[in-house]
Amino acid sequence: MKAVIVRHPGEKDVLEVTDLPDPGRPGPGEVRVRIHASALNYHDNMVMGSPDTPVGHVPLADGAGVVEAVGESVTHLATGDAVFARFFPGWLAGGPVIDHFGTTPGIGVPGYAREVVVAPAVQFERAPRGYSHLEAATLTVAGLTAWAALHDNGGVKSGDTIVLQGTGGVSVFALQLAKLAGATTIVTSSSEEKLKRARALGADHVINYRSQPEWGERVRELTKGSGADLVLDVGGPSTLPQSIQAVRVGGRISVIGVLTGLSGDIPTGAINMKQVRLNGVLVGNHQQLGDLVRAIEGSGLRPVIDRKFPLEELGEALRYFTSGAHLGKVGIEL
After folding, report:
1. Which residues pair with 33 in a beta bridge?
2. Predicted TM-score of the model (pTM)
3. Pick among 3.40.50.720, 3.30.9.10, 3.40.228.10, 3.30.450.20: CATH of 154-280
4. Nearest one of 287, 319, 223, 327 to 92, comparing CA atoms
5. What is the pLDDT of residues 37-56, one digit of tens each?
6. Which CATH architecture describes the domain 2-140+284-333?
């Protein structure tokens, strides 16, 4: 079967298109899935660019396709089902239980940059009715992260004001889901063209953080001085101070990304004075994913796909993704 592997970890051209042995029939508790689509996420660049990634590693955590065979004792999936990948196979429900990616396909174990996967059935969820394989693949990371940040960590409700940083996959999903919940949305970006497109997707207010670097104060102006109920922070250390400025007293910040680094100075005094509830969000669990699928099927929500690349052009897709030119998701089709 055709696959893409990490052949030269940490080097400029890290990937290689190759042939891998067909994995054969599924064993007890397993399914055989024909992969038709994937999508890129921030961590994919980290995995493929790290010198610590094993030679021969199969990347990509997003994956969607069709069940070709099921092993003994598999009951929640059947041959012919359209499915997509779960990010944490062992996190079924409830609060966080894992703080590593050791069991995550595409990171700790082989991922979905290949035509066929035989894996435990618990790695897969039924796709929403009417979704293409590429649309379903975007739910594994971006869709679920946005859902968990808004609902399980953010407690979003109709009438809330939500700040969304940037126009990447998670932020655009969060914009769509926040509007679905009846929230007022404020989107930040450095691109006027992307802000225009965010408006078209339903953003109530937009802020160019390049021309307004103190964008937290602008959020307060837009909310008549009170601040936002929830901020989804994708930047990390460089954006968190403005997120704290933007959020209301007693509000929430869901930290969902580290685009500006893994550590930095944090204004703890402001967190204390505003009594902010600060939550780290690491994708989500199976129950949350099921809730997301039901919300999609009940609303007709469709993910925003910026561009599509064939699997053979995964390296080019990664270069486009890391350029920051995209809005929404960058897809991979097999």
Report:
1. 67, 117
2. 0.94
3. 3.40.50.720
4. 287
5. 999 999 998 898 888 899 99
6. Alpha-Beta Complex (3.90)
